[in-house]
Amino acid sequence: MKKLLFAYLLLIGLFVLYVYQYQSDNTTNSQWSDYELRGTIDENYVMVTFQSGIDYWKRALKGFEDAAEALNVSVEYRGATQYDVDEQITVLEQVIAKKPAGIAVSAMHPVALNDVINKAIDADIPIVTFDADAPDSNAHSFLGTDNFQAGVVAAHKMAELIHERGEIGIVTHPKQLNHLERTRGFRETLASEYPHMEVVSLTDGRGDQMTSKEVVDEMIRDYPDLKGVFASEANGGVGVGQSVLEQQKKDEIHIISFDTDKGTLDMVKEGVISATLAQGTWKMGYWSLQHLFHLQHGLASKMEAGTSLPRFVDTGVTIVTKENVDDFYPNE
Amino acid sequence: MKKLLFAYLLLIGLFVLYVYQYQSDNTTNSQWSDYELRGTIDENYVMVTFQSGIDYWKRALKGFEDAAEALNVSVEYRGATQYDVDEQITVLEQVIAKKPAGIAVSAMHPVALNDVINKAIDADIPIVTFDADAPDSNAHSFLGTDNFQAGVVAAHKMAELIHERGEIGIVTHPKQLNHLERTRGFRETLASEYPHMEVVSLTDGRGDQMTSKEVVDEMIRDYPDLKGVFASEANGGVGVGQSVLEQQKKDEIHIISFDTDKGTLDMVKEGVISATLAQGTWKMGYWSLQHLFHLQHGLASKMEAGTSLPRFVDTGVTIVTKENVDDFYPNE
After folding, report:
1. Are residues A225 and A112 in the same domain?
2. Nearest residue, CB atoms, B306 vs list A18, A35, A318
3. Are residues A227 and A120 in the same domain?
4. pLDDT digits (tens, 9 = 90+) for A133-169
């Protein structure tokens, strides 16, 4: 009889424990709001690029993946293997056919992808552009570098390096809008804020290492007092570095370049390139997924009439010099 | 004996149930990553403005509150009651003393608040600026309207309204940077894209309704063929509306104004003001809190060296016309 009593008591005890646990579970759930920032693993978001093999995208994809972990959703990476706009259109069409939860695309052409981007919108698939925009498409937002601002940052850094005084050359790629903007930001800042710095030469390096080296060879001959060169993209920067090395002007001419491919980082480490501007590629990926998640979950319409998304997110640039260059080599 | 056996069986059954539930709880937990987007209710984020009573802040605060619900944290609203920079500094100091989880501040002066903003940074309190920036402070990011872009939007809308042809006047407030930028975006867009539209008059309305009315009275006398007026802020816009009404030019002159206070919305409803530009104030609040949360939880350093925050988020503008004006009246 005592044993039976004991068993009953234990039973009641466990029942109480069970009820208690059930209730505390409910408390936890009720703390969750209607628009919690947590998805499900079967929600699949896709990042689409071009030249899918290059290192440049790795940090963007890492940001996309990190956001997926924070939001508890899945991601996938697809890209045109070549620098080929038709291939990117085909890849996008394949991705759209699978009806993913959202697409982040870096548009290799500012106009050619408009139709396929709008096709995603028509199929109710959230889509944003990152790194390279398609401004006339219906993509919900763009996350990337404000290139004019990046040029402003480069100008201030150059002023610091040459103590606000001296002749400057620019090697750019005048056919691409992002390079024009970088150059404009650089020149306008020098013109308005640094009266003792003068842009004496503005040349076309065609985004090519060899061409850039040649135009700077000539620039150094024409302007023996040159104190600095701003290269608006990475191949040009390496070409400028080779020219300056060959002409033994390493200690006289400060170079500021763009992006963080291995060739550029090595030259920063060796002190040939004084500084390079790293784009916020991780942030592009991370905040792209945040935007897509907000669209997919209709958080916009739940919370506020219209869209809850900023039109443009400037992911900014970071100045990379000898001091912090090691942080920018890929870990693999 | 049978009863005892039954009791034991029940006991074992309940125990199994208990263990099962315990495990399923653990499974739920393990789905959460290290950097989940979920805080605790005792995390208190503070929004600080100036002229705290005005309607303008309501949507920003709503965005801040909505993000707090999504992220499971608490928020508080504080503001200088007056348009007084010393009062705002005092309020900020009081807020900093309480060591909140983060601060979003609309800086009523672009420089005067730098010290107190940096004081928050020094005390390890995350701080961002929204709506009005303090660009030389150490605030982590700025979330607000790109005023140049807003001027571009206004120019395209004006072109549509007057069929890309005619004389235009501008009433602005040339002492404030945001108004200069709006005017610059408007003028540069007309100059570069609309050869048959001409800005014939650019006047200072001093941010005042009466002054703006008077300058436009004169403008209409001087330019009887005037087809449109762009007012870069709301008081000016209402003044322009009064002038146009009084001179019975309502059907001849299109007005584009800025912001969505009641006076402006009423004039849009009556067809006196053709369009006004609503700033993304809800988004400013919502994404400010997202940024502060990322800083407070050190998501930056967990995920990526450096900061995970965009430098600048352009919350954009929405064109408000007769068609959608009702969505912009406050609900209360």
Report:
1. no
2. A318
3. no
4. 999 999 999 999 999 999 999 999 999 999 999 999 9
